[in-house]
Amino acid sequence: MADCVFCKIVSGEIPSTKVYEDETVLAFRDLDPQAPEHVLIIPKVHLASAAEITPENSGVVAHIFEVAAKLGQDLGLQNGYRIVNNCGADGMQSVQHLHFHMLGGKKMGWPPFPPERMQ
Fold it and tell me: What is the H or E stretch that residue 61 is in?
C-alpha cells in the first residue's frame, strides 16, 4: 500500500533498525521504546489489522510467533517478554498495518498502560 509507513519500511524507502528479516516478515526496533527491548514484528505483505486475518493468510501470523521465539533467545529475554497487538481505533492501533510489539528486558506491569493512556 503506497501510503503505509510500514510498507515503506519493508521496501527500504524509510530506514529502520532491523533485528530480523526473512522473505515473510521484518522485525525492527520501535522508535519510541516502552521497554529496554521493544521490537515491532510485521508481515511484509500489507494486512491492515488482525481483523483481516483469514484462513488463507493466517500462516504469516504463525510465522511471526516463530520469529518472536527466535528473537526472544537472540535478544537474551530468557525471563520472558510480552507480545501486544492493537486492532482498530478502540484497540489503539496507530499504524494501519498488522504489527506485533515485542517488549522485554524488564518485569512488565499490568495493566500494560497507565490509566491516562487508556482513554
Answer: helix 59-74
